[in-house]
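From the thread on structure requests for the teaching lab: each student submitted one protein with a one-line request. Submission from student K.M.:

"Model carbonic anhydrase from Ureibacillus acetophenoni, tokens only."
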Amino acid sequence: MSSLHDILSFNESFVKFKQYEPYITSKFPDKKIVILTCMDTRLVELLPKAMNMRNGDVKVVKSAGAQVSHPFGAVMRSILVAVYELKADEVYIIGHHDCGMSSVEPGQMIDKMIERGVNNDIINIVNYTGIDLVEWLRGFGDVSTSVLKSVEIVRNHPLMPKSVPVHGLVMDPGTGKLDLLSDGGEFLKEL
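Reply posted by the TA:
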């Protein structure tokens, strides 16, 4: 059962009683940061609190596993828009331990697609068009390796200014503790 009507009912009251007022801010991040992180439910409130971020401080881009899976996909485009159009001058890529994406088994996921009505012919057509569906759906295994791979994609992107530090971190979704994997500022000093 959908929660749409409950959400719309709450929203009507939210707007009517101006409960949005504490969240009013501009589209430009006050701390000039863009964060790529995971869509995990545990991070919705924990990550900003653990980083001392409030509404209006940062731009947040979310993807399964905090991955930049394609250098010219929507995630990378969002990061570039944040840097060039929305005045972000620092990028944080933050994965987390116990990530669901780390254990995605493509074969099982394809089976679930078929169980929910995706025709097997469609699966074959997708594979025929040159997309390796199994590889595209595959989980990443080690979160640190995955974060560092995304850091490298962003740092070395031909459209990313070389002066923008790109940091890589991993978070404990139970405590909010952040572990630094790659300090973008230190990387820039070495150039």
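TA comment: The chain has two domains: 26-102+141-191, 105-138. The CA atoms of residues 28 and 68 lie 23 Å apart.
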